[in-house]
Each structure stands twice: as C-alpha cells, then as structure tokens.
Amino acid sequence: MIKKVLVANRGEIALRVMRSCREMGISTVAVFSAADRTSQHVRYADEAYPIGPAPSNESYLKMEKILEVAKKCQADAIHPGYGFLSENALFSQRCREEGIIFIGPSPEVINTMGDKISAREKMVDSGVPVVPGTNDKLISDEQAIKVVLDIGLPVMIKASAGGGGKGMRLVKEEKEILPSLRGARSEAKAAFGNDTVYVEKFVTNPHHIEFQILADSFGHVIHLCERECSVQRRHQKIVEETPSPLLTPEIREQMGRHAVQAARSVGYEGAGTIEFLVDNDLNYYFLEMNTRLQVEHPITERVTGVDLVKEQIRIAAGEHLKIKQSDIIQQGHAIECRIYAEDPDNNFMPSPGKIRHLTEPLGLGVRVDGYVYEGYEIPIYYDPMISKLIVWGAHRNEAIEVMKRALHEYKITGIKTSIPFLERIMENTDFILGQYDTGLIENNRDTLFNIKVCNLSCQDVSIMVAYVDHLRRRDKQLEHPSTPQPSESAWKKTGRGKR
Length: 499
Ligand code: MV4
Known about the structure:
Layout (H helix, E strand, L loop, with lengths): L3 E4 L3 H13 L3 E7 L6 H5 L2 E6 L10 H10 L4 E3 L9 H9 L3 E2 L4 H8 L1 H10 L15 H11 L3 E9 L2 E6 L5 H16 L4 E5 L5 E9 L5 E13 L2 E7 L6 H17 L4 E9 L5 E7 L6 H8 L3 H9 L16 E8 L1 E2 L5 E2 L2 E2 L2 E3 L6 E5 L6 E2 L6 E9 L2 H14 L1 E3 L5 H8 L2 H5 L6 H4 L1 H4 L9 H22 L10 H4 L6
Parallel strand pairs: 1-2, 1-4, 2-3, 4-5
Antiparallel strand pairs: 6-7, 6-8, 9-10, 9-12, 10-11, 11-14, 12-13, 14-21, 15-16, 17-20, 18-22, 19-21
Helix pairs in contact: 4-5, 12-13
The protein binds ligand MV4.
C-alpha cells in the first residue's frame, strides 16, 4: 500500500503528480530549493521540506538529502517526475536500499536503456527494428572509417551515454569521419564522462514518433498508441499531437506491437516511452527508450482516458494492470503546446521575471498543466517551461481550432513567452495539412520567425523606398545642378511628387 508519496520535483509536473495522489487518497510531500519557497508545489502538498540552495545540483539532485526527508516523514514512495533524478539508476538503487518505493523502473533497466549501445543490442535480439548501423562501439580510427564506409554515407556518430542530441555528429563526406569522431567523443566525454560512440545510417527528414507503454510487475505490457513529436527546435519539443497524421492503422498496430516487445525484452516496469524514427515511406526504427513519465504524457491521457500517473502509482504498489490492450482506443485528437518563458523573436532567449497579469484559457476541450500565478517570479535556475496547453477535438482540424482559440485567450504579461510563435505554427500550412517532419521549423523560418519591428505593408515600404530615392536625387541636383536626371523619380511614380 502506498499512503504517502514524496514528489522529488518542482513546477508543473510536481503539481500534476500531486493531483493524482489527492484523487487516490494518498498524502503528498513536497521538497523545495531556496528559490522555490513561494512555488505552487510547496503550497499544494500536505507537507513541504527545504532541501538546499537554488542550483539543482545542490537541491533537486541531492539524492541523500531527499532520501533523508522521505525517511523522516515516512513516505512510502518517491515520484521523480521528469528530468532531475527520474532516469538516475543510482537513485532507483538507493531507494530500493532504503526500503522506499521508487515510482519508476529498476536500476538495471534504467542502466540498460541509458546505454544506447546496450539498448540497441536488446532490440536487435528481440526483433525490434533498429536503424542500420554498428552493434559495437567504435574502437580505432581505422576501424571507424571501415565501419562508416561499410554502412555507407551519410551516417550519424552518436554517444552511447547520450540521447537528446548531445554528442551526436552527422557525417556526409569521407573526409569528415575522423574530425566528427573526435568531436562526438569530446562532447560525450564532457557531457557524460564517457566517450563511447557508435554509428548509425542517417535517416533523412525523419519523423519522431513515440509510443507510450505501461508494464506491471507480472509481465503484463500494453501500449497506449503514439505521440507525434516532430515539431522540435534544437532537440526541444514544442508541439506534440496524437494520433500522428503520418501513421496508418496498420503501421500503428505494428509499431505498437514492437513497442510492447521492446519493453518486454528488458523486463520493463512502470510507464515508459519507446521513441522511433520514421521515414516518409513509413519505415520505422527504434531510437531510444525513455524510462520516465514524459512532459507530453497528457495528450495520451486525453485520447485514451487513462491517468498515467495513477497507473504508475498502482504498478509501483505491486498491483496488477487492469487495462487490457483491447481497452485502448484513441478517441478524437489531442494537441499539446509547450509554453516557455522565452522570447521567440530574440533567438528564444530565456525571459525570467515576475508574472504581472495571468489569464489562462478555459472552456470545452482545454487543459492547462502549469504552476505559475500572478505575482510569481520565475526563477532563473530551472527549465523555462511555465505550462503546457493541451486541447482536444473530435478530429484534427477541430483540435487545431480549439488550440488557436485557447492560445488567443492565454494572456501572460511581465515576461516574454512563446505564445506568439505557437500561434504562427498553428497557422502554418505544412502543420495544418499534417505534412511535416522534424524539419518543419527549419523549413519555415521565413514565416515562423517573422520578426516585425513595426506594422508595415508592402505599399508603405515602397513609398519609403521611393521617398529615399527622391531625397538622393534632390541632393544630387543641388550639388551638381547641371547633371541631367536619368529618369523619372520613383517618388513621382508613387504619385506623391510634384506632377
Ligand atoms: C538520428 C537522426 C537521423 N538518423 N539518427 C536527434 C536526437 C536524438 N535522440 C536522435 N536524433 C536523431 N537521430 C539517425 N540514424 C536524426 C535525429 C534528429 C532528430 C530526431 C528526432 C527529433 C528531432 C531531430 C532533429 C534532428 C535530428
């Protein structure tokens, strides 16, 4: 039985987890850094304890401090949320040693999936398609060149300890192999303290499509269909939707079976995500597994009706999964927009500060998972995501209309937010047609990064250009009165000059 849960996180996800706890009659414990004394998760919890200074490596990443609080307040379990300690095998291990339930998978599974080479190996063994590439790490320069040329250019060199794009290099030409190898290794060494790298064939213009799975401790594994996460910028997801406009029912079923197979092959327990790269011919390949609850989980909840946090808690408490695969049907269409405290027209610079005014959207089909309130000061120490706007419609076009309406209602002043950028995505033709891949933002720079200094029409601009031309001609005439004017002034053509 789980009667008390410590939530080892902050922001919207801490609140999200506590809401499900409350509905289950489970009491909640918040932990907070010095920067989060006035944060919502502290107010919402039944108990709250300080765990250290603002920087996360002195607070939310301090395993022993968090375990000490959990023991002192007699929490039965710890929910890690996402980020921070959520995919830390040592933390899962330490919880086990202290007799506290870690709401997530075992340290063994986290380790296997955290190492991309061993994850690939497991998938190959269990018949889940992986991107053509090496099953072993690269050793010498000579071997690396041979392996790359065997696979055939272009390839990607990736860090085995990586994920999320760090320590990754695209290699298009033979002469780039060794410099890219060195670059990937040194980046991986700096980021993960491990310079092991491997090679995969490069998949051009891929989609990023992931499958949600749930697995109990009795070997019962189901999937809750996919999330289309191809709207990304610098490996950061911006918009997610389900169902994916790309998939057919047949491919969805096949991918779902492979996702279940992937989870089963490692003895997975809890909620997890299998990421796939999908090309335009609907070939799909296992990319990596995320052994945590994900930011974008609400769109899956919206179309399947399953509360993923409740299921995580029940599985961790040793209950049998009551949902069968045949219970899972995608109803309608859900879209999530991530709202960041960033200035989209200034290279997405973080925009921390005090929330002056806040009006959140409401109404049919709208869910906001957030944590900020009027007068709240967003700390600079953590991720700048302030909320997630999740909408539902009976079909995709309706969901887009609900999203546009909800973004229009959303008013946040005092800081810059990504809302105007999200509104432009909702107006983008490729997005509206559902014909996009991971290149969407890059391919639509002109319209998405419409950096306006002021409201000028083409007519206004032509008048300004003509007037400047007129002034230049007049000055020339004053300096050299005898010079004949070559042609009619553009100013006259606009109809503003002397006739
Ligand atoms: C790839 C790829 C193409 N081919 N692997 C980026 C993040 C990391 N998790 C894996 N990534 C990619 N791996 C092969 N063999 C293209 C990407 C990629 C990408 C993947 C998903 C979503 C957005 C992306 C943006 C750029 C590159």
